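Exocyst complex component
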Amino acid sequence: MSEASPPFPSRSTASHLPLPPAAPPGAGPGALPAPLGAGLLAAAPQAPALPRAPRTTTPGVPGQGRAERSGEDRQVGGSARHGSARPGRAGLAACPPEPSPCSSSSSSSMERGKMAELESLETAAEHERILREIESTDTACIGPTLRSVYDGEEHGRFMEKLEARIRNHDREIEKMCNFHYQGFVDSITELLKVRGEAQKLKNQVTDTNRKLQNEGKELIIAMEELKQCRLQQRNISATVDKLTLCLPVLEMYSKLREQMKSKRHYPALKTLEHLEHTYLPQVSHYRFCKIMVDNIPKLREEIKEVSMSDLKDFLESIRKHSDKIGETAMKQAQQQRNLDNIVSQHPRISGGKKSKKEVCASSDLEVKTTSPMSEQDSGILDVEDEDEDEEVPGAQDLVDFSPVYRCLHIYSVLGARETFENYYRKQRRKQARLVLQPPSNMHETLDGYRKYFNQIVGFFVVEDHILHTTQGLVNRAYIDELWEMALSKTIAALRTHSSYCSDPSLVLDLKNLIVLFADTLQGYGFPVNQLFDMLLEIQDQYSETLLKKWSGVFRNILDSDNYSPIPVTNEEIYKKIVGQFPFQDAELEKQPFPKKFPFSEFVPKVYNQIKEFIYACLKFSEDLHLSSTEVDDMIRKSTNLLLTRTLSNCLQNVIKRKNVGLTELVQIIINTTHLEKSCKFLEEFITNITNVLPETVHTTKLYGTTTFKDARHAAEEEIYTNLNQKIDQFLQLADYDWMAMEPGSKASDYLVDLIGFLRSTFAVFTHLPGKVAQTACMSACKHLSTSLMQLLLEAEVRQLTLGALQQFNLDVEECEQFARSGPVPGFQGDTLQLAFIDLRQLTMTSAVCLRSS
């Protein structure tokens, strides 16, 4: 094979051979250029020299042409053996270099050696180091090495050394190529065979590529759709993230609207603040959020206006329902007072507790057993209509104060608390003036007063609750100012309207209502001393109305009395009367039934009515926080007015009546005598109910004794007057014939009738005190004597006969006989006859004169 192969062409010959063209476009990565293979096959029979590419050197970069050439040679040699080759010194290391036979190179080496000897050893060593570094260093890192050559001044010598090194390597390459040429040719032959397979493979790859492209269209479409889906997914994800931020804002805004729609203004304000400071800053770049931010001041103003509207509704509501609030508060005060009274009267028993119903029942029993007043005077508030087992709700439970609290907090949060406080106080002052204005007909019924007091109590209960449940909305100074105004107006209204009350029951109920009104407000901390002072003024008016009422009662009793002793037919009636009036008479008790009391029916009736009056006065003094001495003094003064003015006037009117008879007058004297004796029992009665002894200093004494004495004296005087009038009536019937010649056989008829009348009248005087009967008898006899003397001495009697004088003397003797008969016991001797002594002397003198004439 070496013989057939021609020698390896020289560099100059190879430089003229054409290079194979590049592979056509679209050929596979392993395909060789077609002309290259064809050229090699055509040149194979003649065995021409293998062409060699000319070496080109880039100016300024030494060794570049050699490197390119060595790379090409290594590629061709490697391809011929293995079909692939690695560039670089790896191919060179495959074959060891052989010594060059050329003498020219030896002479050149000698010349270079001679020249190297002339160079310094240091420069030669440096150049050698650079060459070794160029051979061993990667092309990318050769820059610094070349720079070190040009930094020196002997780069010319280095170039010569470099050229020598290149020629040395070229010779080695030529040897290697000549040694491996046949293998190269074989490799080319194999490559030509591979070309057909490569073409088939190319066609297969082309078909596969075409099929792949056709099949990949759907994949590309799916990929585009996937891309769009991924884009949509990414957009949706971004949208969800944004909505996650925006939805809480929208939900809070919707919640705010719902709260405002349901009038939950305070939570709406809190929601608005949370929305403004927490949620909106996170999404402030959205337009709808900017709209919300712009609407926030409007929403605040809307909440403010709506809350103020709720406050106005609240103020209007409590103005309308103040009476109900006050009524409830006063009922609670009444119940508490009843319980306090029961607890004070009934000490706690360790054995157990009473139920509320038992307590109320015992309270009712106490009222019925201890109070003698009629049912209409027993109370004020009709709380018995309420279920006893049901608790009365608190006054605060009847009112929903949440509008005030909400509005106050809203205005506080909005910085307008002072405006709210001023508005609230101004409106409540206006309502206070309306509440304190009493109706014109308030004095007509108790309900008018009750409604008036309920409204006032309701007003101040609300204000007291506001004072203790809010901080600064109202203060104590404001409440005190309102209370002072209310107190002055209330007292003035009560003074005016109570003066129109003429019914003592209404005045008593009014007093109880005022006490309950005062106790209720005192329980809320309001001073009520002025109300109790005013009650003392009303007490005087109450006494006046009682006196007027009892005046009518006494008149009815006196008018309906029969002025005759009370007949008693059995023991039961007797004990009943003795129980009503303190009367004890051992002789009367011993008498069998039927029997009579010396007094008439008006005595026990008047006595009981005096006690009722005392009870009525005591009833007024209850719950006035007065001492026992003050209560005793008030009762005694009122009772004295009843005795000295009311009862005395009634008795005087009865005594002075024209149609009253001597029997009635006598009975009045007897009755007043017994009433006078009962005054000490009235003293004891007052002492028992007030627990103040009569011996106590400043204790007022009852003037009943004086009253009854005066009435009795008036009756006595009236008896005297009536007797005289009766005597005068009989004397008017006297018809003396002063010219009669003969006297009659007996006394004159009128005088006999007169004496008979006097006897029967004085017989009734047996139950009168002795002095009264004696005085009446003496007065009658004196008046009769005087009247007879006037008949005899009157101017019309110018002359009389002895017969007429004798008849007159018979009448005088009849009078003397009456005096001697003792019509009234108790006269000593002839005391009663002395009443006619002057008449006797006048008669005797007249008879003597007539006889002498």
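thats it. The CA atoms of residues 508 and 591 lie 46 Å apart. The two ends are 245 Å apart (CA to CA). bye
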